[in-house]
TrEMBL record:
InterPro entries: NADH_UbQ/plastoQ_OxRdtase_su3, NDAH_ubi_oxred_su3_sf
A family per Pfam: Oxidored_q4
Transmembrane segments: 6-31, 66-87, 99-118
Membrane topology value: Multi-pass membrane protein
UniProt source species: Planotetraspora phitsanulokensis
UniProt similarity note: Belongs to the complex I subunit 3 family.
Stated name of the protein: NADH-quinone oxidoreductase subunit
Amino acid sequence: MAFMDGYFGSYVVVLVLLLIGVGIFAGGLFVNRMLRPDRPTPDKLTTYECGVDPVGEGWAQSQVRYYVFTYLYVVFAVDAVFLFPWATVFSAPGFGMTTLVEMFVFLAFIALGILYAWRKRVLAWT
């Protein structure tokens, strides 16, 4: 296969593997659609969530502060993800002061975000 030896040879391999993956995925969905039973009833078509029958409208308003708490959680989770590898590299010889300075710069950015949230009174749970 001469076309796979040139510059675009690796791209052809990636494209072929991508097409095989899409084919397997689409084939699985098609087989599932052909084999599943399809008997819709009114009971099966009603909205169901957490064992509670649907009552009233489907519109529920949530406050923005819950999303802000979620974002703050993500910030702390990302902080923890970076702290663990940093702790392992910090003990390696030759990386002490460099990694210490880098981590303090990183923690300063995190602290600025938390300070901003605190100044905007986002952290008050009311």
